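Chain X:
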Amino acid sequence: MQYELAPMEGITGYIYRNAYRKYFGGMDRYYTPFIASTGLNHKELNDVLPAHNAAFLLGQDAGRNAVDGPPRLIPQILANRAEDFLAIADRLRQMGYSHVNLNLGCPSGTVASRGRGAGFLGYTWRLDAFLAEIYANCPLTISLKTRLGVSDMEDWEEILEIYEKYPVEELIIHPRIQRDFYKHPIRWEGVELALERWERTGSSIPICYNGEIHSLAEYRALRQKYPQIQRVMLGRGVLKNPFLAAQLRQWESGRQAQEEIPAAKQHREILWAFHQELLEGYREIMSGEQNALFRMKELWSYFGESFPGKERALKKIRKAGNMAQFEAAVREVFG
């Protein structure tokens, strides 16, 4: 089974990826939040600079529960013009990257309204021409992350037919349409249609499942329902429980995995070290402590689920108006 860390805008930048790899590991692939500027703006450039991602680009992996071989870092590109995609990919090639991912899944209204991300799925003829050009001219391996459509699933089979025409390295499916955002229940029929089509046509494109795996129980249900799926992308579940990938690997290896979020003393120590490395990293790169505070509070909106029974202290974190109040509340959570 292959595990991949989802790209999450504003959260899984290089500070988070490096700290996660150091303290938890267990991921085969990590994805950067999407790059949309052909010139790579300051934030985008910093996130993919080789100096900030040496452990991935140099093949070093000393992370806990690490898989055999180095984890791969794959930059994600958001574009709907082939020349823009190719320009960004060429910059990344010059930095040493060999694989990029095309974002066809972002549901944001501002993105989709411009025909990018999941919004591109509403223009299948343009999507086909776009893919033809980038696969013909890009020297890098290209994988795709997709939703099932824009306002319904009517075009999903046609979209799959388009994907099958190209040497897609991996197809990551988030089984919702653009208008579902993240609230609508998973549309399992979209997964089933893809798997049935692949079996019927003999497609060799690997399918990676992404969506609502927040616990071992949810993962086990997926594996029971679709045993042919051998790749999963984890997102918010890992933000809530950084030990999740390790738990899933334990279960796959036949060892007993804990159903609940680990709460033993040694696990708290790892979480504390991870948290402090994130905090110091954000303080170092962000202008002003308030910006670092906002970023940490955003992480705690997920991370707090690792601390059941600490609701009062978690509320103090949410209400903290400065770094001193925040750090005092964090110590209370870990206390």
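Chain Y:
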Amino acid sequence: MSRSAYHHGDLRAGLIEAAATTVEQGGPDAVSLRALAQTLGVSTAAPYRHFADRRALLDAVAARGFEDLTAAYHRAVAEAPDAASAARGMARAYLALAFGKPGLFRLMFASDLVNDGASPALLTAARAGWEALRGAVAAADPHASPAVVARRTLTGWSTLHGFISLVQGGRLKGFMTEPLGESELLEAVIDKALGGP
């Protein structure tokens, strides 16, 4: 892409997109502002007009991941006929991100990114996703106390996240899942995450 292809504001989005691609291909350690500048055909100083350092760029990539996940949650709610279906749709969206973009998913939940030192934009995006989950849990049982909603949200998310960690870590072996097919296994995990049998 030529240097003139980027107008003010477009380079920031281009850097985030290129970094997200790099994260999927080689992990966050493969992200280099200098290499991304070369890939995008801009000066090596240009990325620093938008990001102070590599960490700031990775924060922005993770924030965009949370924003996209939250948008998927909202679509699941809008398309669902009832609260239970909305919660299932949100669980499927979470699994789809984890298995469709595993590098981004790992980056979003990297302990060195999502902590008190994270950028305000990243923390805001992560919190918005969490609040969408909590809202779906509350809608499924409007009479539940805030403590029950918090407990159900945390245990449901933990169930899904734990399953994802087992799969991505290669810890889930075929003999453990026989005779379940992949879709049956995913639905069983979603059932458990939502408090089912």
